[in-house]
Design goal:
This protein has a four-stranded parallel β-sheet with strand order 3-4-5-6, with no helix packed on it. Strands 1-2 form a two-stranded parallel sheet. The protein is built from six helices and six strands. The chain folds into two domains: about 130 residues, NAD(P)-binding Rossmann-like Domain (Rossmann fold, 3-Layer(aba) Sandwich), CATH 3.40.50; about 40 residues, no CATH class. With about 180 residues, the protein is of the alpha/beta class. The radius of gyration is 18 Å and the shape is globular.
């Protein structure tokens, strides 16, 4: 797994429980909880590429992660590897991904996000038998949407009362 924050951790739980997968991951820093509870192993980016059978992405898009999954990265992966991006489309170079799939450098791909978004209707990845593309709608359940509405309302109420916001996306830049 590339990125083992809250979302990556939940994915790791499911992979371990449903498929008995060994969890290896690369993250900005080791995740002690995942290592204790899931027997996850922190590895270098290089090791993640060369050892993963299924590589899932759950990282933020930043200057250091933009396009990190490119021709060079795909060339280090196993020929039977499955690349799954549920994080941000900008993490992978789509031209390089298509070339890796065409050449058999990797076996398949699952994309919940694309690069660019929205994807062009004529994008050749849409017709490839070893690619599954879904819209990024994991939060489209009634429960998730209701939860988001409640969080937003609590933030608005706190802001109007000049109180600290209860839900902050970027706490490093938030100043009350």
């Amino acid at each position: 797994m590339f990125g083992l924050g809250n979302i990556g951790y939940e994915m790791a739980i499911k992979c371990k429980a449903a498929f008995g997968m060994n969890i290896i991951y690369h993250n900005r820093k080791p995740n002690a909880k995942a290592e204790q509870e899931l027997d996850a192993t922190y590895v270098s980016f290089e090791e993640l590429l060369t050892q993963s059978d299924v590589l899932t992405l759950h990282a933020n898009l930043s200057d250091t992660t933009k396009g990190i999954f490119n021709k060079q990265a795909f060339s280090k992966m196993k020929s039977n590897a499955i690349f799954i991006n549920t994080g941000r489309g900008g993490l992978h170079n789509e031209t390089d991904l298509k070339e890796a799939l065409d050449a058999g450098t990797i076996w398949g791909a699952g994309l919940d996000v694309t690069n660019p978004e929205p994807m062009d209707k004529d994008n050749p990845l849409l017709t490839m038998p070893n690619v599954c593309i879904l819209p990024h709608i994991g939060s489209a359940t009634q429960e998730a949407r209701n939860g988001m509405a409640v969080m937003a309302a609590k933030n608005v109420i706190a802001g109007l009362k000049n109180e600290p916001l209860p839900t902050i996306v970027n706490p490093d830049v938030y100043h009350q």
